[in-house]
Design a protein that fits this description.
mainly beta
């Protein structure tokens, strides 16, 4: 059987999404590498449209750029990136992966990441992953949220991650209820993996 490390929809912080790399990996969700909208190969995969220029709370001009994939089934995102006009760094992303992403049981995945400027560079402060699926007559959706805090310790930035999981009340069941209504008991391997 082996042990396959999977990403759970309770751990948005564990994905460590970095859109500054050429390829973005969603470990545990997909084996594919998705082309970042700012990779050195981006013009081969994306069309870019300037949407508008806005001013943020610090008085910085931000360009809102609409990202459109050139090919439907390429490993690409669609959505918007927000780029600081002065230093050309990403300060926010709102990117979308649809059915063509090849993620099992997920029909739609939205990744929103807010970044904050610290010492002339942008660092993530919040990552929100919204997902939707529709399989075998069931519709399901959810949101994962990871908040990141930074503090100065002897001149170095220290990365602290905090996770917030929002579960709607009707989606949460006590463990006894799930075990009682389970039609087929778990195998030894499933029980071992479940409680690990």
């Amino acid at each position: 059987y082996g042990y396959y490390r999977q990403w759970e929809f309770t751990k948005a912080a564990s994905l460590q999404l970095n859109f500054n790399e050429d390829y973005v990996t969603l470990k545990g969700l997909s084996d594919k590498k998705f082309v970042s909208p700012i990779s050195q190969h981006a013009f081969n995969f994306y069309d870019f449209k300037h949407n508008e220029t806005i001013v943020d709370s610090l008085g910085e001009e931000i360009d809102v750029i609409h990202i459109l994939p050139k090919k439907t089934f390429a490993p690409t995102f669609s959505g918007y990136i927000y780029v600081n006009k002065k230093n050309m760094q990403i300060c926010k992303v709102s990117l979308h992966l649809g059915d063509n992403a090849g993620i099992s049981f997920i029909n739609d995945l939205l990744i929103e990441q807010n970044l904050v400027k610290i010492d002339d560079f942008y660092y993530p402060t919040q990552t929100m992953i919204s997902y939707f699926g529709k399989n075998l007559g069931f519709d399901y959706s959810g949101v994962c949220l990871a908040d990141f805090n930074y503090s100065k310790i002897s001149g170095d930035s220290v990365f602290k991650k905090h996770e917030i999981l929002k579960i709607r009340e009707h989606d949460a069941f006590p463990e006894d209820t799930i075990d009682a209504i389970r039609p087929i008991p778990l195998t030894d391997l499933e029980t071992h993996t479940y409680w690990e």
